[in-house]
Amino acid sequence: MTQIKTIIVFFFIVCFETKGQGFLDQITPPWGYTFRDWKGPPIDVIVYIPHSAVESTPILMVVPGASRDAQRFHASWLDLAKKKTFIVITIGARKRYFPDEYSYNAGRVISSDGYPMDESQWLFSAIEPLFDDFKTKYRLTSKNFYLFGHSAGGGIVHRFLLFKPDAPVVKAVAANPAFVTVPDLDIQYPFGLKNAPIEKKSIKKWFKKKLAIVLGEEDLGPRTKPLSNGAMANVQGENCYERGNLLFSAVKQESKKQKVDLMWSLITVPGVGHDNFKIAPVACNFLFGE
Q: Residue 174 pairs with which residues in a beta bridge?
């Protein structure tokens, strides 16, 4: 009889916990899914939801670098997410579908041949629908999200905020971007804004974003990809540290010219090079507080 009572009590405890935590069904492997509900190619999504999370827990979206190693970039945020209680979703844009810097770093706005892509096909156009899909899938209630990208991912982040100025982003970090887009209408996109399909008012909105350019002070080596090691990128500087500083300086100058209050921050990290793992804690402090 005692054994039966124990089983019944255990059953009710399990049912209560399952009902209370139903929105966290997938905190065990495989930790993710493939997002297909947009006009472009499928995008992998890796998920981490801390055990202490609730429906309204903040959500961070992580954009990997050129390696597209979503698991490695995802892993660099897990301990931070546990300590500060935020959800992490890392996107995986496979090289099969996004094979070069035009389709990845530059957001698939133009092809490698210079032809404009339909906006529904931009990589930038997948970000907000992916966020909405994720919330629905896990029954979460956050109305906005935080955004982090490193290297090529840092390029995506600062361009995404330019091309999608009304996206529900609370704060963002573009860390060690491989090459940058400066607010200059005489320089061809993706290095400047010439022929970029944006409105001038989007530039002003861009300046008002809570975006931090986070740079490792030892990130002094050359890049190896065609665009980020090409002539236009090298005009921006010999390395990511110089290019990130150039971006912030150019934006600061242009925002002053347009009489717009600049909300960007520049954060440099001593003793750190092109290292996502070591940059992440500094970025986390900017995004979620120390």
A: 149, 213
Count of domains for the chain? 1
Q: Does 16 fall in a domain?
A: no
* Residue 12 located in a structural domain: no
CATH number at residue 110: 3.40.50.1820
Give the Cα-Cα-Cα angle 58, 63, 69 (nearest 5 degrees).
Answer: 125
Q: Is residue 69 part of a domain?
A: yes
Q: What is the residue range of 79's domain? A: 25-288
Whether 130 is in a domain gets the answer: yes
Amino acid at 16: F
Q: What angle do CA 124, 130, 132 make, to 5 degrees?
A: 120
What pTM did the predictor assign?
0.89
Each residue's pLDDT, cut to its tens digit, for the chain (290 residues) gives 444 333 333 333 233 233 333 444 444 445 789 999 999 999 999 999 999 999 999 999 999 999 999 999 999 999 999 999 999 999 999 999 999 999 999 999 999 988 999 999 999 999 999 999 999 999 999 999 999 999 999 999 999 999 999 999 999 999 999 999 999 999 999 999 999 999 999 999 999 999 999 999 999 988 888 898 899 999 999 999 999 999 999 999 999 999 999 999 999 999 999 999 999 999 999 999 98
